[in-house]
Each structure stands twice: as C-alpha cells, then as structure tokens.
Amino acid sequence: MNLIRKSVTFSLALILSLTLAMTTFAATEAYDFSLKSNGEAVALNYHSHILSDGEAFLSLRHLVEAMGGGVYYDYNEGIITLRMGQKEAKLTLGEGVATTTDGSEITVVNFGGRTHVSASFIEDFLDVTIHIDNENRSLLIADNANLDTIVRLMAEDDAANIPSMSADMKSIIKMTVTVDNETENVDMEVVGTINIDYANRFQHIHMTTSFMGMDIVSEIFDNGESMYVVAEDMVLILPSSSFDMADDLAAQFSPISGLELDRRYFAGLRLVTSADTYTVSGVMNIPEEFFSDILAGMGDVGSMLPGFDEIPGMDMSITLNAPIAFTSVFDRSSELMTSMDVTYDMTVTITALGETSVVHMMYTMSMPRIEYNTSFSTVVPAEIVEAAVDMLSLFAF
User: Fold this and answer.
1) Domain range for residue 92?
2) What per-residue confidence (pLDDT) applies to 157?
C-alpha cells in the first residue's frame, strides 16, 4: 500500500513539475502591437509577437511581407523561401527548428498556425535593428543604413568642431506640481535667443518668460567662471559656470556614448534626405535607466550648485511617461543641426528638507534657427559685474 502511495505521489510530482516547466517556457501571445518601419507606420494584419524562454519571436510571414518582402512555403518539401530585394534565404522546417541554407539551425515556434522566428534572425536577414517597446505596444524596425546616419548625426559633438553658435528658442512648459497632497497647475512660455562661444567658454541668453500673467525679461551671462542673472533691475551672481557643470558631468558619464550603445532606441526615427538636408523625425524610446545613469553621474543632485549640497536628504528621480517626439534638420555638407523641435512628457520627483515634490511636466522646445561660427561680445558688461549680488546669500538652509 505504501509502495503504491509512493508511486502515485512520485507520478503526481513528476506531472506537476513537467506542467510547471512547460508553463514557464510556453509561448505567450501579445496582441495589438503597432509597427513602424524607418519611422513610418506600416499596416500589420497580424499584430502580435510572442515570448518564449525570454526571447522575442515574431510572425515571419506577416513581418517580412509588411516590410515589402515575400515569403513562399513549399508544403511538400517543408521549405520556406524568404525574398527581400536581391536577398534570399531558405529555411527547412524540422521539429521546433529550421535549418538555414548554410546548415545552421534556428529555433522556430508555431503559434496560431503561423511560423515565428527570433527577432535576431529577422535582424540578420533584413539587415535591420528591431526595438520591441512593450510598454507602448509598438514594434520599431529601422534599416541599419538609415540608422547609422541618424546615430551619426545625433551623436556628433558639435562643440568640438565649431567655435560658436547662435539660435532662436521657444519653450512651452505645462506643469502640475504636487507638494504635501496639494496640487498646483503652472504654465510657462519662454522665448529668446542663445549665443554660445565654445572657444572662449562664454554664453549669453536673452529671454522673455511668460508666467502667471506676467512677462519677465531676463538675461544670463556665463563667462566660464560664474553666471550672472539679470532680471527686473536685479543682478544675481552664481559662482559656478554651466561649462564646469557640463565638464564634471562628462567626466562621470557620457550620455551620447550611452545612447550609441543602445542604437535600437533610435529605431522609431524617420530619415528623409534631400539635396541639401537631412530631416530626422519621429520618436525616441529612451529608457528610464538612461536618466538614472545621468543622475548617478551627477552624484548628489544638491552638489550641482555650490551651497545647495548643504540641503539635507536632497534627491531626484526622472520618469519618462512617453517616447520623446523629435524633429530636426541637418545641413548635409556639414552635418550640423540647423533647427530642432522636441516634446517630452516626464515626471520629476524631488526630495529635500524632508518633503517630496512631484512635478509632471509637458515640455515643448523649438529652435527654428541654429547658426554656427557667429560673432558676438564675450565680455560681461562692467555695470552688471559691479551690481551683482551673490545668489546663494539669498538662501539660508
């Protein structure tokens, strides 16, 4: 009796273990994914991808056909032929695998009567980069030749190649600020010009800020050592330069190199080439880890500004609520940006002095004119230097 009981118990345990194992590695289907190819929306009749053993598998026929290729199946021989332009590949189907023309084997999954293959196989055959955005339920595919150009344009270090630049700018900021369960809506518009002389580490910003029914005209001078803020007949000096902050940040963390490592996050951008320009537009799916790395590279947020590191418990986090919408035009000969529009939706959480503030920000910034190698005065006017008051003296922590 004990032997029978033990045998039954062992059998049930074995069945349960196999069932759990099969459940763990079983493919699961995900519906209603949109598809974009090189930033353009593409109709996809079979909106799905599946996950098996942690790897993404995609519907072979529907994806290749959506990309303009052809898929042909020989039922007698069990051979799938893929054609994309001049490229051709043959897959001989087996049990859970397919043998390619060169004799290598790839895993295939039959789901809903459709053959699914790994995203990496599709990338190799089509010479594309694929980004599966589960949060926004989108499948982004970019031709590697286009993507190479986009990454090169956006990752170029303009400051190292040009002495100066001048630009018009306009920003619209819509914020919802929550502090201690009290919420306030704040709208702000900033319009102005910015001049940067990289060679002499000097910048001058002139802007008008519309805020709570007021228009505040202000100027910022940064001479590489200090920043002078002039507004409403008041001149404040901050004993730190934005150039120094940028240098410190670059020494700890390079945002551009981080983006280059994750080129798939540019897969939602579209590239249009004309005789004189490149136009890049679409969405960038930048992960939250990117912003976390930037903040980590800065160290304690309070240490960014001298004196502010004395604020106890200063901390900040950034959450991106949607992909960043981006449009920019580049000159083809110089590959320098001549205009830019960017929109993002983010939540910034700041903790200081024992209180936590949550800022939901809808931000739109436009630079319709960007010019290079411009000339302007790189001297802070003497009357501004003489009238400056230490900004940090206004704060007592």
Assistant:
1) 28-142
2) 55
